[in-house]
Design goal:
The complex is a heterodimer of chains A (507) and B (429). With 507 residues, chain A is an alpha/beta fold. Chain A is built from 22 helices and 9 strands. In chain A, the strands form 3 sheets. In chain A, strands 6-7-8-9 form a 4-stranded mixed beta sheet. Chain B has helices at 16-25, 27-40, 121-129, 137-141, 166-204, 212-231, 269-287, 309-314, 323-337, 359-371, 390-401, 413-424; strands at residues 3-6, 50-55, 71-76, 87-89, 114-119, 147-156, 242-250, 254-262, 292-300, 304-307, 344-351, 377-383, 405-410. Chain B is flat. Classes of the chains: A alpha/beta (507), B alpha/beta (429). Chains A and B meet through helix 1, strand 1, helix 2, helix 3 and helix 7 of A and strand 1, helix 1, strand 3, strand 4 and strand 5 of B.
C-alpha cells in the first residue's frame, strides 16, 4: 500500500471505515506479534452501554435486583452528567466481544479498536492468570446456561426463593474462588506406577524388628477428627459440597455464582497490567500508523488528547485525586520497560541487569504473560517511574496519633515504595483472610469461620450481615472467630446471635 | 478478520427486568416515598414521573471487607514537600487514609446518602393506585357492554360478494373438480389406450371392417366422457367461501368525569386547591381504565355554569349556594351529550358543606331519582373544619341505598390521598 496514502480522518465513522481501520491496526498489531482471539466488534448506543455496565460486563446475565440497582445508579449519574460512559467495554470471551459506542468519533473508534480488540484481547489470550482460570471459548455458553437455569428455578420455586439464595451467594462472592489450581487428577497408569514405586520403597524399608514394639491404642486426637481436615478458603465451594440442607437446585445456583466469580478473579488481579498493556498498545499502534503517514495530524491530535486524558495522574492533594490511576501506572511501566531495553541508563543496568539492552518486544510480552499486578509491580517498577510519579509511601498505624511518611522517591525509598505498592495490589492483603475452620459434626452442626487479620486490620461493619447470609446457606449456627496473639480465639460475630449460650452448648 | 455487528437496533432495555426486580424488592420503601410525595406534588405536574428516594443503608449488599484501623501502608503520587520520617496529622477518619486501591471498602463514605432515582409516570401511577379498583365495576360490567368491536371469525359459506375469500374459494373449486373428475379421467385414459391398441391391430389386420364396431363404440364412450368432464363447472356456488366477521361486545373505553364545585364566597383558594388535588387523583385513576376521558367542569353558586378548567379553579365569585342547580345542570348535560349506555359516568363533588338549607333535600332527591342510576360513581367530599351541615346529613341517607355513592370528609391536604384510597379501595370479594 502506498505509504503516503492517508486514511480518511472522520470525524464521522461508517462501517466501511471501521473495517479499513481495523485492517490497518491488525496489520500493525501483527508486526508487534500481538496474538489475539478473533474479534467481534459491536456498535451500541449509550443506553445499551448502560445496560452493559450494570451487568458488570457480562454480555448475558441472570436476573437479579442488584443489577437493576446498578443500572439505576448508572443511569442517574450519567443523566446528571457526573460521569461519562466508558468508550468501550471488552469481554474476555472467544471471539472477544468489544462494544463501541455509537457516539464516538472516528479517531475514538480507531483508538478503542486498538485498545480493546488488540490490547485487552491479546492480554486475555496470553496472560497466565486468564489462561489458568478462564475458558474464553465457553464463557458465553455458560452464562447463557446460568441465565436459563436461574429463570427455570424462578418459575419452579418462586422469585423470592431464588433471590434469597443469590443474595446470600453474592455476599460471599469474593470467597467463591480457588486461588490455587488443584493438581490435575493423575491418569490411571501414572497412579499405578507411583503406587508400585511406593510399595517397593516400603518393602525396602521393612525392618522386622519394629513389629515387636506393642501397638498403642489409637488416640482419638482432636485434630484428626476435624472437619474439614484443613481450613477451606473457598467458602462457596464448601457450601456447595457440604451444606447439609440445600436442595440440589440451590447447590447449582451456588455453583453458578462461584463459577462467575472465578471468571472475574483474574481481572481483579490484573487491573494495572491489563489497562496498562492496552493503553501501551493503542499508543504504540497509533503512533506506528502515524509514522507510516496513514493518519492525518488532526486525527492523531484527537487520539493524543484522549490518550492523555486517560493517563492523567493527579497528585495526592488534587481535589479529584482518587488513588493511583491504573491506566497511568500501567502505561508508564510498560513504556519504561521499552525504554530500559532500548536506552538503558546506568541506574537501569544496576536495577535490571537482565533487561537492559534486551529485545524490548520480547521483554514486554514476557512481562505481560507471566505476571499479575502485584508481581508485575514488584518486578518492574523502576526508580524512574517512581520519580516521575513522585511516589511516596505513608504508614497509618491506628496506635499512633499521626501518619508517618515511610519512604519517598529517593535512593533509600525505591525498594520500600516498590514493595508497598506491590502489596497494595495483593488481593490477599485487601480482602480479609477468612476461612472455613471447622464444623461441629457430632454436635449441633455449627460452622466456624476463622479470620486472620492482616496487620491488625479489623473487619468492616457488614460482617454480621454477611454471616446472616452464610447462616441461610448453611442452615445451622454460624460463627466467625479471630485468633489473638495469645493463641486464644474470640468470637467476632455469630448467627443466630445468642451470646454465651453457644459456648455452653459446645462444652 | 474482525467481525462487525451493528447492535444499535437491538432492544436497549436489557436491564428492564432487573430494574423491575429492584422495584419489587424495595416496593415498601418506594411506596412510602411516593405516598409522601403525592401530597406535595404540584398539580400541573400530573403527567411526569416522580423521583423516589430510599435510604442507602436499606439496600447495601454486605460483603466481608476490612474496617478502619490496624496498620496500613499506602503509596500516593505527587509528593511535593514530604521527606522520609515526616509526621502528618491524621486526616478526618472518613477518608480512611486516602483510600486508593482499596476499592469498595473506602466507598463507605457515601453510606448515608439517600439513593434517589426517577420512576416513570406509569410506574408512579401503578404505585399510587395499586390495590385500588373502579368501584362496582364487576357488578355493572355486564349491563354496560355497550360497545361492539368487529373481529375476524373464520369463514362462512354465505355472505356478500365483497367478502368472498378468493384463495379459499379456488381451493374448494380445485378440490371439487378433482373429486368429481378424477374417476372419469382415469376411465378416459384407459379407453384411449384401448382405442389406440385396437386401431393399431386394425391397421395391421387384413379385414379392417372387423374392428370397426368396437372402435366406434369406444369412440362414442370417449366422447361421452369428455363431454361430461367438460361439463364440470370451474366454479360452483358450493365452492364459495366468505370471510366471516363477528361482533364482540367490549366494555366501553370512554368515560366522562364531572367535576362539581361550589365557588361561592365561602370557598377560599386553599379549599379549591384541595378539591383540585382530589380531582387530579380521580382523573389519573380513570386514565388507567379508560382510553378516552372527557372532563366536564361545573361550578355553581346560586346558579350553575359549565366552564373550562382555568375558570373552574381560579375565578372567584360570590353569592349564596344552591347545590341543586349544579346537579340539574349535570343531569341536562348527561341527557344531551353523554347517554349512559355509551359513557361511563363519574362525578366528584367538592364543597365546604354550605348549602341553602331548603335546597339540600332537593339535592338528594335529584341524585337519587335522576342521576345515581346513570352513574358509575359519585363521590362527595366535604372540605371543612366545621361541623357538618344539612347537605352532609341529607347525603348520608343516600350512602346505604346506593353503593355507587360515597362521601368523605377532608380536613387538610394530608387527608386527600388516604381519603382517595379509602374511597377506591378494592372491595374484598
Amino acid at each position: 500500500m502506498d505509504k503516503a496514502e492517508q486514511l480518511p480522518h472522520g470525524p464521522d465513522w461508517s462501517f466501511e471505515l471501521l473495517e479499513r481501520y481495523d485492517q490497518e491496526i491488525k496489520r500493525v498489531a501483527q508486526l508487534y506479534r500481538l496474538d489475539t482471539y478473533p474479534n467481534q466488534i459491536e456498535v451500541i448506543t449509550a443506553e445499551q452501554m448502560m445496560d452493559a455496565y450494570s451487568s458488570v460486563g457480562m454480555p448475558i446475565g441472570y436476573r437479579h435486583w442488584s443489577y437493576g440497582k446498578k443500572f439505576i445508579e448508572t443511569e442517574q449519574t450519567y443523566k446528571r452528567g457526573q460521569m461519562g460512559l466508558a468508550y468501550e467495554i471488552v469481554i474476555n470471551s472467544g471471539p472477544c466481544i468489544a462494544y463501541l459506542m455509537e457516539e464516538n468519533t472516528l479517531p475514538m473508534q480507531a483508538l478503542v479498536i486498538a485498545h480493546a480488540c488488540y490490547g485487552h484481547n491479546s492480554f486475555f489470550k496470553n496472560n497466565y492468570l486468564f489462561k489458568t482460570w478462564t475458558d474464553a471459548g465457553s464463557i458465553i455458553d455458560y452464562l447463557l446456561f446460568a441465565k436459563q437455569y436461574i429463570e427455570d428455578c424462578e418459575e419452579k420455586y418462586g422469585i423470592d426463593e431464588v433471590e434469597e439464595i443469590i443474595d446470600s451467594c453474592h455476599a460471599l462472592m469474593n470467597y467463591g474462588v480457588d486461588r490455587y489450581k488443584r493438581p490435575q487428577k493423575l491418569s490411571l497408569s501414572e497412579e499405578k506406577r507411583r503406587q508400585e514405586e511406593r510399595a517397593q520403597y516400603m518393602q525396602s524399608q521393612v525392618n522386622a524388628l519394629w513389629r515387636t514394639i506393642p501397638v498403642r491404642s489409637k488416640q482419638v486426637d482432636e485434630e484428626s477428627q476435624r472437619f474439614p481436615q484443613e481450613p477451606q478458603e473457598n467458602i462457596l465451594y464448601f457450601i456447595e459440597k457440604h451444606a447439609p440442607l440445600l436442595q440440589p437446585w440451590q447447590r447449582e445456583i451456588v455453583r453458578i455464582v462461584r463459577k462467575i466469580s472465578q471468571y472475574f478473579y483474574p481481572q481483579k488481579q490484573t487491573q494495572v497490567m491489563n489497562e496498562g498493556w492496552a493503553t501501551f498498545w493503542h499508543y504504540t499502534l497509533m503512533q506506528h500508523l502515524y509514522d507510516e503517514g496513514k493518519l492525518s495530524d488532526k486525527f492523531m491530535l484527537e487520539i493524543l488528547h484522549n490518550h492523555t486524558n486517560v493517563t492523567l495522574q493527579p497528585p495526592y492533594n488534587a481535589p479529584y485525586y482518587s488513588g493511583i490511576n491504573p491506566y497511568a501506572l500501567g502505561f508508564a511501566m510498560f513504556t519504561d520497560i521499552r525504554r530500559i531495553c532500548e536506552h538503558p541508563t546506568e541506574e537501569d543496568k544496576a536495577w535490571f541487569p537482565d533487561m537492559a539492552g534486551s529485545d524490548w518486544l520480547e521483554t514486554v510480552h514476557f512481562a505481560m504473560q507471566n505476571f499479575k499486578d502485584e508481581s508485575f509491580i514488584g518486578q518492574y517498577l523502576s526508580p524512574k517511574v517512581i520519580r516521575d510519579f513522585k511516589l511516596f509511601a505513608v504508614v497509618d498505624d491506628d496506635t499512633k496519633s499521626y501518619i508517618q511518611v515511610d519512604a519517598i522517591h529517593n535512593e533509600q525509598g525505591y525498594q520500600k515504595i516498590r514493595e508497598q505498592l506491590a502489596s497494595q495490589y495483593n488481593l490477599s492483603n485487601i480482602e480479609p483472610n477468612i476461612q472455613v475452620y471447622s464444623v461441629d459434626l457430632k454436635g449441633d452442626r455449627s460452622l466456624k469461620l476463622r479470620y486472620v487479620p492482616h496487620q491488625n486490620i479489623p473487619l468492616g461493619d457488614s460482617t454480621q450481615e454477611v454471616l446472616k447470609h452464610l447462616h441461610r446457606l448453611w442452615g445451622f449456627n454460624v460463627s466467625l472467630e479471630q485468633v489473638q496473639e495469645d493463641n486464644k480465639s474470640h468470637v467476632l460475630a455469630r448467627v443466630p446471635d445468642i451470646p454465651e449460650n453457644k459456648d455452653a452448648l459446645q462444652i | 478478520m474482525s467481525h462487525f455487528i451493528d447492535r444499535r437496533l437491538n432492544s436497549k432495555n436489557k436491564s428492564t427486568v432487573n430494574r423491575q426486580r429492584f422495584m419489587r424488592r424495595y416496593k415498601k420503601q418506594i411506596k412510602r416515598a411516593v405516598a409522601d410525595a403525592v401530597t406535595e406534588r404540584s398539580i400541573q405536574d400530573v403527567t411526569s414521573g416522580e423521583s423516589v428516594s430510599i435510604p442507602q443503608k436499606d439496600m447495601t449488599e454486605p460483603f466481608f471487607h476490612q474496617g478502619n484501623g490496624g496498620v496500613r501502608g499506602r503509596v500516593h503520587t505527587g509528593n511535593d514537600n514530604f521527606i522520609d520520617g515526616d509526621k502528618i496529622k491524621r486526616p478526618p477518619p472518613q477518608e480512611g487514609g486516602g483510600g486508593s486501591g482499596e476499592g469498595e471498602a473506602s466507598n463507605q463514605g457515601e453510606g448515608n446518602d439517600d439513593f434517589v432515582f426517577q420512576i416513570s409516570k406509569d410506574e408512579y401511577l401503578d404505585l399510587i393506585f395499586e390495590d385500588l379498583a373502579l368501584p362496582n365495576l364487576e357488578q355493572k360490567q355486564l349491563d354496560k357492554l355497550i360497545e361492539y368491536k368487529t373481529y375476524r371469525a373464520g369463514f362462512t359459506s354465505d355472505g356478500v360478494p365483497a367478502n368472498i375469500n378468493i384463495v379459499r374459494s379456488l381451493q374448494n373449486s380445485l378440490l371439487r373438480r378433482t373429486a368429481l373428475g378424477a374417476g372419469k379421467k382415469r376411465k378416459l385414459n384407459e379407453l384411449k389406450a384401448e382405442l389406440a391398441e385396437l386401431e393399431a391391430s386394425a391397421s395391421k389386420a387384413k379385414n379392417k371392417r372387423k374392428h370397426e364396431p368396437a372402435i366406434c363404440a369406444l369412440k362414442d364412450q370417449i366422447a361421452e366422457l369428455e363431454k361430461r368432464l367438460k361439463n364440470l363447472p370451474f366454479i360452483d356456488t358450493f365452492d364459495l367461501k366468505y370471510n366471516n366477521f363477528a361482533q364482540r361486545a367490549v366494555p366501553s373505553s370512554q368515560a366522562v368525569m364531572f367535576c362539581l364545585m361550589d365557588v361561592s364566597g365561602s370557598m377560599d383558594q386553599a379549599t379549591k386547591e384541595m378539591a383540585k388535588r382530589f380531582y387530579v387523583l380521580l382523573y389519573l385513576f380513570l386514565t388507567r381504565s379508560y382510553k378516552q376521558i372527557d372532563v366536564v367542569f361545573i361550578r355553581h353558586h346560586t346558579q350553575a355554569k359549565e366552564v373550562d378548567e382555568q375558570e373552574f379553579f381560579y375565578s372567584q365569585e360570590t353569592g349564596g349556594t344552591i347545590v341543586s342547580s349544579a346537579l340539574k345542570l349535570m343531569n341536562e348535560i348527561v341527557k344531551d351529550r353523554y347517554p349512559e349506555n355509551q359513557w361511563n359516568i363519574y362525578a366528584a363533588q367538592a364543597s365546604d358543606g354550605d348549602n341553602w338549607a331548603d335546597d339540600s333535600p332537593m339535592c338528594s332527591k335529584i341524585l337519587a331519582q335522576e342521576l345515581l342510576p346513570k352513574l358509575r360513581y359519585y363521590a362527595y367530599i366535604e372540605i371543612t373544619n366545621r361541623p357538618h351541615q344539612s347537605l352532609w346529613r341529607e347525603y348520608e341517607k343516600l350512602v346505604d341505598a346506593y353503593p355507587q355513592f360515597a362521601m368523605q370528609h377532608i380536613r387538610s391536604v394530608k387527608d386527600i390521598y388516604p381519603v382517595f384510597r379509602e374511597l377506591f379501595k378494592k372491595q374484598a370479594a
